[in-house]
Amino acid sequence: MEEEQGSHVPPLSSGKSSLQGLDIAHAFFKPLLQSAPPSSTKRHTKVSVIGAGNVGMAIAQTILTQDLTDELALVDAKPEKLRGEMLDLQHAAAFLPRTRILASVDYSVTTGSDLCIVTAGARQIPGESRLNLVQRNVALFSDIVPRLASHSPDSILLIVSNPVDVLTYVAWKLSGFPSNRVIGSGTNLDSSRFRFLIADHLDVNAQDVQAYIVGEHGDSSVALWSSISVGGVPVLSFLEKKEIAYEKEALERIHKAVIGSAYEVIRLKGYTSWAIGYSVASLARSLLRDQRRIHPVSVLAKGFYGMDAGEVFLSLPAQLGRGGVLAVTHVHLTDEEAERLRDSANAILEVQNQLHLGGGGGGGGV
């Protein structure tokens, strides 16, 4: 998703037909007499996606097909591409749930959003670590986040741009939002890849595998082997009780495959998009529909699992609902896993400490 801030361009048309002026709707339908107004309790949901690149459009398309919002606003700095993407989606209206689709280079189109999803950022270069992207994206966020916070002060910010943990921290600082309303997509997708590889290894359905990758969304991520279960059966304790030998090296190879899988996709097709689209849509569903599901997402980790070194965002299994992050799950960590998690936090803090951001977030804890 290459994204650059350009000069002001007027908002794009929402794509409504010029025939609307002929009042055709009234010719087709006769209103009921003495009808009551719509219920005041009916909720209108609005989602904004910032960045109309490959990832942003994969997320937008998945949200549309899963009927997660009543209104979808797209923002990008490239007006022609943005209008083309909007029209392309609008032309699929006959095959999709009814959703109003808007697009503009002007952030006012995001006004009143329940959820703002930020995907804008420099594209990851093959072989480049996610943390190397940070300096190229902080300046961009300094322009984007305050505008979103101004137009939708009660929204939830969901950061997808990489390096997601550092940029979620940046978004928190720039927005002034309480930390429970600033979330990074984190290792939600890493955990999905992890579950897939374990399921493939054991020849079972991935939906029957409970497994988490936590920590940084990147090279220092931590696989929580001690808490993996398949069909409700804890894997490692089962193997130990049955005295079934397993090699730790084999487990590490699966974790390394998780870390390398995104780089492999980038090497082969230049970017990742479809999997992150489904991953973010699952987060949007949990948030907007108050599902209270557990997702490993990037949250303010201070005070959890003995991490008190500083204000760092990294992925922990968190309960998500209409208020954003509702709680962090008490997952048992081995001493080795806890140490690796702290090392992951320190790797992120090392980058954050070079940013020297002014201001502060709105809330202290998750």
TrEMBL record:
Top enzyme class: oxidoreductase
Catalytically driven reaction(s): (S)-lactate + NAD(+) = pyruvate + NADH + H(+)
Domain Lactate/malate dehydrogenase N-terminal: 45-184
One GO molecular-function entry: L-lactate dehydrogenase (NAD+) activity
Pfam families given in the database record: Ldh_1_C (PF02866), Ldh_1_N (PF00056)
Residue positions binding NAD(+): G51, A52, G53, N54, V55, G56, D76, N137, V160, S161, N162
Known pathway: Fermentation; pyruvate fermentation to lactate; (S)-lactate from pyruvate: step 1/1
Protein name per UniProt: L-lactate dehydrogenase
Keyword field contains Oxidoreductase: yes
Entry's Gene Ontology cellular component terms: cytoplasm
Start and end residues of each Lactate/malate dehydrogenase C-terminal domain: 187-350
Active-site residues (renumbered): H217
A Gene Ontology BP annotation from the UniProt entry: lactate metabolic process
Known EC number: 1.1.1.27
Keywords tagged on the record: NAD, Oxidoreductase
Family of the protein in this entry: Belongs to the LDH/MDH superfamily. LDH family.
Keyword NAD: yes
Organism: Cinnamomum micranthum f. kanehirae
